[in-house]
Each structure stands twice: as structure tokens, then as C-alpha cells.
Amino acid sequence: MNALSLRPAIVTDLPSIYRGELAYIQQWEPTHEAGWRSQVEHNLALWVDNFELLTVAVLDGQFVGYSLWSPEDSFAELYTINVSEAYRRKGIGRALLDAYGVAALGSGCTHLSLSVRPDNPARLMYECAGFVAVGTDAHGYLRYERANGLGT
Ligand SMILES: CC(C)(COP(=O)(O)OP(=O)(O)OC[C@H]1O[C@@H](n2cnc3c(N)ncnc32)[C@H](O)[C@@H]1OP(=O)(O)O)[C@@H](O)C(=O)NCCC(=O)NCCS
């Protein structure tokens, strides 16, 4: 793969992040699109409030993905991870996931955590990275966790 770099988000990334989040909703939660759009100010506030924890992947100078996490007590919750469709299966998602793990555990969190739809193949990426399914949340999403020191 050509030169991949990860960097903190800058404000001009927000439209690309918005488009990535909308594409996810349209692919995986199409019945929730109207609700998601009506909550867009809430989502924008989430991204802005955690702006320093928003990481962008750049390949050959082009925006190709992003991730966002936030500390919740001793857990670091991965809110979103997304790679532009044309750039998937090139290791970019795993690079973002690994960077989140290093940053979150380095900041003092003891566990990484996230939710994923049971039918989303992103599960495989999490499992390959040492995350373990610990249950199902109220919306039917699988909960995954990884303790500090257990990454691969
Ligand atoms: C999930 C996502 C971020 C993965 O990004 P990616 O750059 O394609 O991931 P990688 O190339 O690093 O894949 C790492 C491993 O995860 C697994 N994996 C990822 N996507 C997969 C897929 N669609 N099918 C099967 N396995 C997959 C594979 O084991 C892969 O390794 P391999 O390619 O060597 O077999 C990307 O598919 C995406 O943006 N999806 C839409 C948003 C989304 O669903 N986010 C997760 C919400 S919980």
C-alpha cells in the first residue's frame, strides 16, 4: 500500500466524516436514516466535544477514513470507525483500530469497548485484534471488549 498516515482531525475533515457516517447509516441502518438526520446536531456535538480523539486516515494526501473514541470511566468506547468504500480491505481499518487502542490505553483507560451489529463483518476485524464478545446490548448489538495488555 502507498503511504498511509494517521493524524488528528482538523475542522475541514467534518464534511467527509459526516458523509462517512451517513453512508454507514444508509448501508446498515436505512430505517434509522430520518432519525439520524434529525439528530445531526447531537452527532456534530459528539464529534466536536471529542475532537482531539477523532483520528483521520490519509492515503496519498486523500482522506480515506476516521475513528472516534471517548473515555467512559475506565473504558475507552469506540464510537465509530469508517474507511471509504474504495479503500477497504487494505489494512486501513486495522491501522485506525490499533491507533485507538494505543491512544486509549496510553491515556489510562484499562479496557477498550465497542458495539457492532452481529451481521457486520467488522466483527472479524475486532476479533482478529483481540476483542472478545461479552454480551448483547438493548438494541441487539454485540458488545466487545479488550483489556489492556491483551491486544495482538
Ligand atoms: C469495518 C471497516 C472500518 C474495516 O475497514 P478496512 O480498512 O476494510 O479493514 P481492514 O482492511 O483493516 O481489515 C482488517 C480485517 O478485518 C476483517 N474484515 C474487514 N472487513 C471485512 C469484510 N467486509 N468481510 C470480511 N472480513 C473483513 C478481515 O479479517 C480483514 O483482514 P484481511 O483483509 O487481511 O482478511 C470498513 O469495512 C468500514 O468502514 N465499514 C463501514 C463502517 C462500519 O461498519 N464500521 C464499523 C461499525 S461497528
UniProtKB/TrEMBL annotation:
Taking every annotated instance into account, which residue ranges of this chain make up the domain N-acetyltransferase?
4-149
The record's annotation in InterPro entries points to:
Acyl_CoA_acyltransferase (IPR016181), Bact_Acetyltransf (IPR050832), GNAT_dom (IPR000182)
Q: Which domain of life is it from?
A: Bacteria
Keywords in UniProt for this one? Acyltransferase, Transferase
Q: Which SUPFAM superfamilies match?
A: Acyl-CoA N-acyltransferases (Nat)
**What Gene3D superfamilies would the database entry show?**
3.40.630.30
- Cited PANTHER family: ACETYLTRANSFERASE (PTHR43877:SF1), AMINOALKYLPHOSPHONATE N-ACETYLTRANSFERASE-RELATED-RELATED (PTHR43877)
**What is the recorded name of this protein?**
GNAT family N-acetyltransferase
Question: What is the protein's species of origin?
Answer: Pseudomonas canadensis
